[in-house]
Design goal:
alpha/beta, Spore Coat Polysaccharide Biosynthesis Protein SpsA, Chain A, UDP N-Acetylglucosamine Acyltransferase, domain 1, 2 domains, 12-stranded parallel sheet, 10 helices, elongated
Length: 478
């Protein structure tokens, strides 16, 4: 979309005390984005010439989020005069003086509202020629919301806030969604007329509707049938409910795009993640952040991926991974832990109870089980034996281990970094590698085995072990 006659105002100045949180309400996360991130993404999608965000509470933290999701947005501070009317007033003052188009007002705590719905409202506003067009919704429980009042013919009359309404007015179930499209010139005029004669002593934006109507200009309230689109977040109960609803929509969207999701109820997918057709997601899986999964991959069960890349046909089972890359056809898990900086090549393997960090494991190479691989590069088609540890930290600094291609390392090895194991080399079981191993060499550090006959009978007399040895016909003198 692109519209030179459109400005969007995002209201993000409120404290959000009902969240009972040190984190500003509009920064609480929902499906991979803060609440304000969802709203600014919608604002950007409208293609407006101007975006203005009004801040106050924890303004620096909110401004940081604004710069992330809408770098071009103008940020303005609300002053000591409270209320949404005042917030919009300072926002309009920040627009160019000659701007005479349409002003959309959005709230930073209404995250499910999409650009298609807002764009449709703008189109209806332009077509009608009204001075104000607003969204409304009919709720089973309208408590806490401003009510839309109409006359007997259904014509819009006014908006009354919860704290100012009479019993009859509060019985109305059609509520103001807090989403408006104003004619800019009319909005400038009516904002100057709004006072604070109400229970909260605030300058309500909703009073602008009364001023518009008193001036004889047209107003229309357009109801949406999907009330989740205009659901505001005021506490953690509402945040959780919105999260469940948004996740269900995200899951359904990917299912319709060709992704198999075995158990939608236990699968969580952030709005920022991407999945190709023919991906299979098994129960208990979280696909978070900017994770991208290519066609034919199988993820889960019981897997969490954060900002990961999963290649075509890869299988990732019961794994926790962050900022990791898994190549095509590779396998990971079960019970693997991939920390940031892990890259597994095509057809490679990171197996059971393996932890990796800041390491590249080449094509066809395997770390099958019970190992820690950190700050390491493994070449192609190598096998790292069970129980291997890369001792990458000397107490002061981290050091690097390099394992070549076609290497076979024995079980229970320790590689004391910095160390290099050449191409085609072998290491024996139990080897502690403290110096480089040349290509094609065998490295061993094992001493000759010594058996001390009769030790158990002499040193553990009367124990079950001694009795078992005696039953086996072993004499104490042997």
């Amino acid at each position: 979309m692109s519209s030179s006659d459109l400005a969007v105002v995002v209201l993000a100045a409120g404290q959000g005390t009902r969240m009972k949180s040190s984190l500003p309400k509009v920064l609480h996360p929902l499906a991979g984005l803060p609440l304000i991130g969802h709203v600014l993404t919608t604002a950007e999608a409208l293609g407006a010439a101007h975006i203005v965000t009004v801040v106050r509470h924890e303004r620096d933290r909110v401004v940081e989020a604004v710069s992330t999701f809408s770098p071009r947005a103008i940020v303005v501070d609300q002053d000591e005069v409270p209320g949404t009317g005042r917030a919009v007033e300072v926002a309009v003052d920040a627009l160019p003086a000659d701007f005479d188009g349409h002003v959309v007002v959005l709230s930073a705590d209404v995250p499910l509202l999409d650009a298609a719905t807002v764009g449709g409202l703008v189109d209806a506003h332009r077509a009608s020629g009204d001075a104000l067009t607003l969204l409304s919704a009919v709720l089973d429980d309208p408590t806490g919301n401003g009510r839309i009042l109409r006359d007997a013919a259904g014509t819009f009359l006014s908006i009354v806030e919860q704290k100012d309404g009479s019993a009859a007015e509060l019985a109305v179930r059609e509520v103001n969604a807090g989403v408006y499209v104003f004619d800019a010139a009319v909005l400038r005029s009516v904002l100057a007329s709004i006072g604070t004669d109400n229970a909260q002593r605030e300058k309500y934006l909703t009073d602008a509707a009364a001023e518009v109507r008193a001036a004889g200009a047209g107003i229309a309230a357009v109801a949406v049938s999907d009330h989740w689109l205009v659901a505001g977040i005021n506490d953690r109960v509402q945040l959780s409910a919105a999260g469940v609803e948004l996740n269900a929509r995200i899951v359904r969207r990917w299912q319709l795009a060709g992704v198999t999701i075995v158990d939608p109820a236990s699968t969580w997918i952030d709005v920022t993640a991407t999945l190709a057709p023919d991906v299979e997601v098994r129960p208990g899986t979280q696909i978070l952040g900017a994770t991208a999964i290519e066609s034919g991959a199988v993820v889960g069960p019981d897997t969490t991926l954060v900002d990961c890349e999963i290649g075509a046909g890869a299988v990732v089972t019961r794994t926790d991974a962050t900022l990791a890359v898994v190549g095509a056809g590779a396998t990971v898990g079960p019970f693997a832990y991939l920390r940031p900086g892990t890259t597994l090549g095509a057809d490679g393997k990171i197996g059971t109870f393996v932890e990796t960090k800041n390491s590249t494991i080449g094509e066809g190479s395997k770390v099958p089980h019970l190992s820690y691989v950190g700050d390491t590069v493994v070449g192609e088609h190598s096998n790292v034996g069970a129980g291997t540890i890369t001792a990458n930290y000397d107490g002061v600094a981290k050091h690097k281990t390099v394992v070549g291609s076609h290497v076979r390392t024995g079980s229970h090895n320790v590689f004391v970094a910095p160390v290099r194991i050449g191409d085609g080399a072998y290491t024996g079981a139990g080897t502690v590698v403290r110096k480089d191993v040349p290509a094609g060499a065998l490295a061993i550090t094992a001493a000759s085995q010594r058996n001390m006959a009769g030790w158990v009978a002499q040193n553990r007399a009367g124990t079950a072990a001694a009795q078992a040895a005696a039953a086996a016909g072993v004499d104490s003198a042997e």
